[in-house]
What we know:
- Two copies of one chain form a homodimer.
- Chain A is mostly helical and 338 residues long.
- Chain A has one domain (6-335): Orthogonal Bundle (Farnesyl Diphosphate Synthase), CATH 1.10.600.
- Chain A has 15 helices and two strands.
- In chain A, strands 1-2 form a two-stranded antiparallel sheet.
- In chain A, a hairpin with a 2-residue loop joins β1 and β2.
- The two termini of chain A are 28 Å apart.
- The model of chain A has no long low-confidence stretch (mean pLDDT 93).
- The interface between A and B is large, with 41 and 41 residues.
Amino acid sequence: MVELSPASSRRRADEILTSVRQMCDPLLREAVTSLPDPLCLMGGYHFGWWDVTGAPTLAASGKSLRPALTVCAAVACGAAPHTALSAAAAVELVHNFTLLHDDIMDADRARRGRPTVWTVWGTADAMLLGDALHALAVRVLVTDLPTHIATSAVARLERAVIEMCRGQHEDCLFGNGRRAHVADYARMAMGKTGSLMGCACALGALCAKADVATVAAMDTFGRELGMAFQFVDDLMGIWGDPAVTGKPADDLTHRHMSLPVVAALDSGTSAARELATMYRTASVDAARAAALVESAGGRQWTQQHAEQRVREAIAALSDPIAAEDLVALAHLASRRDK
Amino acid sequence: MVELSPASSRRRADEILTSVRQMCDPLLREAVTSLPDPLCLMGGYHFGWWDVTGAPTLAASGKSLRPALTVCAAVACGAAPHTALSAAAAVELVHNFTLLHDDIMDADRARRGRPTVWTVWGTADAMLLGDALHALAVRVLVTDLPTHIATSAVARLERAVIEMCRGQHEDCLFGNGRRAHVADYARMAMGKTGSLMGCACALGALCAKADVATVAAMDTFGRELGMAFQFVDDLMGIWGDPAVTGKPADDLTHRHMSLPVVAALDSGTSAARELATMYRTASVDAARAAALVESAGGRQWTQQHAEQRVREAIAALSDPIAAEDLVALAHLASRRDK
C-alpha cells in the first residue's frame, strides 16, 4: 500500500474522528436525554454538551476514538458507516461509564479541562450516572441492532467490561508506588484499555456481518492499538501539556506505576535506583523524577513500544488497504499529544 | 380460592425461597467464579459462600426473593421452573450489584451480619465488583436465553437498573433529614425497590412466553409487592432486631426519611412537630424518635399501607389460584421480620 505521510495520516485521522463524532452525537444525546433528572443533566455535563445548570456549552467532548474504531472497522469489512453507529454509541457509553467510576477511584478532579462529575455532584451521584450509562449502552444494542447481532455484541461488550474491571483493579494497586514489572503493567493495560478498543473494533465487524476470523482479527487490532494508546497516555501523564490534554500531568507526584516508570525501574541503571528510592518516600519531586525516568530510558522505551504495538495492530489486519482509515487511527494513537 | 392461613402461607413462602435458592445457586456460582481474581473472591464473600480468604462458610445468603419471584411468575404462566432459572440468576446478580454500590453510598458497614465488601476491600474494589456483577447479569441473559427472549429481557432489566439509579439518588437526598412527603417517598421506593421486583416477575413471564398483557400484569404485581417489601424494610430499619435482620436498626440515628418517619411528619400531630424539630438537629435520640413516630401513627400507617400494596399486587394477577406461590411470596413481603 502507499503509506500516507505522518501529516496526512494525522489529518485523515482527525477528519474521521470529527465525522464519526457528528454521526454518533445524535444517538448519544438521545440515549442520555432519556435518563431521568438529575442523571440526564449530569450526563450532558459529563459529555461536554452543557454546563452544570444545563445551558449549552462549547466544552471539549471526548476524542471519540472508540466509536471511530467501530465505524471504521465496519467500513473495512465492507459495510456502510451507519450500520455500526448504534454499536459505536454503545461503546462510547461504556467508555464514559468507566471514566466516571475511575475518576472517583483515582480521585481525579479534572477531565477534558473541567471539574469531574464527582467533584460537582458528589461520589454517589457520579457512581449512579456511571451505572446508568452502562445500562444505556446495553439498551442501545438490544434496541437498535438485529436480534442475533445484538446478543453477540452484548456478550462481547460485557466481557470487555469485566476485563476492564480487572484492569482498573490492577491499576489501583499500581497507584501507590507499589512495585510493578513490565509484564504486570502489560496485563493491566490490556484489561483497562485494550479490551474495550478490541471490543469496539469487533463490534464494527459484527455489525458488518463479518466472519468469525475477521471479528477476531479486528479484536486483536483494537487491543494492540489500545495498548499503544495507553502507553502514549502514560507519556502524557508525565510530559503532557495540561492545556492541551485537559488534565494535569501529575502521575509522578502521585507515584503512579505508569509504563515509563516501570520500564525505568526495570532498567538496572543508577537512575533506576534513585527513582526507586524516591518512589518509596511519600513526596516525589516530579521534575527530578521525570529526568530520572528519561535518563533510565523509560521515555524512549515507552515510545518505541507504542510504535511496536501499532505495527502489530496493523499486522493483524488481513487487508490494510481496505482498512486505510483504521491504519490512520492506529498511527494517531502513537503520535497524539492529547 | 381457598386462602392459606398466615402460618401455612409463611411456611410455603419459606419452602419456595429455599427451593429456588438451591436451584439458582449453581448458576450464580458459575457466573461469579468466572470472574478474574480478586473480583471472584470478593463476589463469593459478598454472596456469603466464602470468608475473606476464600474458605467456605455458612454465612447467611440473601433471601432470594427476587429469583423466587421470577421462577414463580414463570410457573404461574404455565412454564417449568427451570425455564426461568437464568433470568432469576440475572435478576439476583443485578440486585447484588446495586447492594454493593448502595452500601458504599450509604456508608453501610454491615450486611447479612457481616462487614460489607467496601469495608473489607475498600470502595474502589467494591465499585468494580458491582460493575462486574452488572455485566455478568446481562451476559447470563444473552448467553442462556433464546435470542428473541434475551433481547426483551435485557431491555427490561436495564430499564429497571436506570429506574433504580433514579430511586437511589432520591433515597440519598432523603438520607440527611431533608423533608420528604409521602408522594416523594412512594416515587423513590418504586424506583429503588419496585422496579426490579416488577422486572423479576416480568422476566419470569417472558421466559414462559406469556403474552404482552400477562407480562405487564406480572410487572405490576412485582412492583406493588416491592413497595410493600420496602415499607416493611423501613419498619425494620427502626424496630427490627439486628440479630435477625443482620443489619443495625439505625434509620432514626441517621435521620433517614423512611416511610414511618415521613408518614409521622405528615400527620399534623404534636408528636410530628417534636419529631420535625428533633430531625433538624444533628443528633437524634433514637428511642424518643421511635416513640414519636409510633404515637404520630407512622408505624401503623406504614404497616397498613404495606398490606394494602399486597392486596393491590394480588389484584393484578389474572388468576391468583394458578399464582398461589406468588401470593404466598406477596404475603411474606408484608409479614416478614428479616
